[in-house]
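Supplementary Methods. Inverse-folding protocol.

Structures were first reduced to a discrete structure-token string of length 81. This string, shown here, constituted the complete conditioning input.
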């Protein structure tokens, strides 16, 4: 079993105009583990998952696995560097 995280976020922030959805969060998601995100509406759960999936534009400091989701080749699953 690998000890590498499936996704790691370091100092991530996401804003929508003046509204802050995520404010400088850092987290790693381990492989082979079920994780749940719970919380009320409007606390950033969907923003977090959209950033990890690469479907939302990165505003600051997102790292996904061993690559940066801002690199289109890595985020699409290609192994080009």
């Amino acid at each position: 079993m690998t000890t590498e995280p499936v996704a790691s976020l370091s100092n991530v922030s996401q804003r929508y105009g003046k509204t802050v959805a995520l404010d400088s969060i850092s987290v790693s998601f381990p492989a082979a583990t079920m994780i749940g995100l719970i919380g009320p509406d409007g606390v950033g759960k969907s923003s977090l998952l959209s950033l990890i999936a690469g479907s939302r534009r990165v505003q600051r400091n997102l790292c996904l696995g061993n690559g940066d989701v801002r690199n289109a080749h890595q985020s699409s699953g290609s192994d080009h560097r």
